[in-house]
Amino acid sequence: MSLKKAPSVRIAPSILSSDFARLAEEVRTVERGGADWLHVDVMDGHFVPNLTIGPIVVEALRRVTRLPLDCHLMVKRPEDWIPAFAEAGADIITIHAEASAHLHRQLAWIRKLGKKAGVSINPSTPLTVIEEVLDDVDLVLIMSVNPGFGGQSFIESTLDKIRRLAEVRGDRAFLIEVDGGVGPQNAAAIRAAGADILVAGSAVFGQKNRKKAIEDLRRAAEPKTKARSARKRRS
Ligand code: DX5
Ligand code: ZN
User: Fold this and answer.
1) How many CA atoms, within 13 angstroms, populate the side-chain half-sphere of residue 168?
2) What residues contact residue 209 under an 8 Å CB cut-off, 6+ apart?
3) 95 three-class SS
4) Catalytic residue among 36, 41, 44, 70
5) Ligand 1 atom, smallest distance to 14 CA
């Protein structure tokens, strides 16, 4: 898959807020509803105080959707898991800067396995921590809540962080993704600050009509752009 900058915002529903007992159906609702990517929150009970999804679920998801699988690894020692998620069918593998002593090596490894490499930082981690790897990533995931749970409130200081990252980016090709507390109420500000991809858990899966929830987000993020069919934009 290509991770080129797109003229319009991409929406990545997070399955963390979906009904896990009906996962395939839930995924279908957002795929049909125009989602661009599917965000998969992997938590190990150590890096974050919650335990969720392993490679076996990613492998199952791969069989039921054509959406790019955007795997957000909130795990200690990501090096123990990178090959398993790559093999399971992840398209993008994002690891946390705080979780890895050898970030550069692991990002290179993700790319070597033919996957897009993402790096993420928690709200309290400064941008300077990832400064030296900005040439080695396809995506930077800015956490706008403390990771571990869906349904938390957006931390406002994140907006300034996104703005600063967008400035530092210059003509580098990486995409900026924002995760946590994103909804129609703040999508415009997050997009204006420089986000290319909005992750939304409760704002999508908490709504009955997934298509409308995704369209509302898209419209809020880009008030002047008419929501277009996801198929045209998908990459
Ligand atoms: C939080 C996860 C998020 C979460 C977002 O640890 O990384 O992806 O699912 O959920 P909402 O959109 O409900 O804040
Ligand atoms: Zn996430």
Assistant:
1) 18
2) none
3) strand
4) 41
5) 9
Of 27, 37, 41, give the one whose Cα is nearest residue 138.
37
Question: How far apart, in whole angstroms, are the C-alpha atoms of residue 235 and residue 233?
Answer: 6
How many Å apart are CA 146 and CA 121, to the nearest integer?
Answer: 10
Distance separating alpha carbons of residues 143 and 162, to the nearest angstrom: 10
User: Which of ligand 1's atoms lies nearest the C-alpha of 183?
Assistant: 12
Tokens encoding 71: 């795997």
Tell me whether residue 41 is one of the annotated catalytic residues: yes
* Least confident segment among 95-109, 169-183, 216-230: 216-230
Q: How confident is the model at residue 223 (pLDDT cuts 50, 70, 90)?
A: confident
- CB-based pocket (< 6 A), ligand 1: 14, 16-17, 39, 41, 72, 145, 147-152, 179-182, 199-203
